[in-house]
Design a protein that fits this description.
Layout: H1 3-20, E1 24-32, E2 35-43, E3 46-56, H2 74-91, H3 94-97, E4 101-112, E5 117-124
Length: 128
């Protein structure tokens, strides 16, 4: 299983997870030259920006002794905050952006390919 197919599978799982939690997916893979937002969703009056990190491992333990969310470095968060600012200003009224309610999520997924299961963990308020 290639890296891009693992990432795509993780994003699909993350979207289904968010939809089961009452979110409406409004955008995926918003790309800019300096970064990408994996998933954007809305629930109520809040916009959720999600970074999805997926690894292949065992559902009983971690993959290669690390957790997928450890792949979100402070440098990556800094890059993402810039993409989030551009996304919100492009997709929403700029004057509304400063007062709009939004949250950043890291969605960590461990795939167990043999068992055909996935463990999903959501970390909130990473960019506060």
């Amino acid at each position: 299983m290639g890296r891009s197919s693992v990432g795509q599978m993780g994003e699909d799982i993350a979207c289904r997870y968010l939809e089961r939690k009452g979110h409406h997916i409004i955008d995926r893979n918003f790309r800019m030259k300096f970064g990408e937002i994996d998933v954007v969703s809305e629930k109520g009056t809040t916009v959720f920006i999600s970074e999805v990190k997926t690894v292949v491992g065992s559902s009983m333990g971690e993959s290669d002794n690390h957790r997928p969310e450890e792949n979100v470095s402070s440098w990556k968060l800094k890059k993402l905050s810039r993409v989030v600012q551009v996304y919100l200003s492009e997709k929403y009224n700029l004057s509304h952006t400063s007062t709009m309610r939004w949250k950043f999520l890291v969605i960590a997924i461990v795939l167990d390919v043999e068992e055909k299961t996935a463990r999903v963990r959501v970390i909130e308020d990473v960019l506060d």
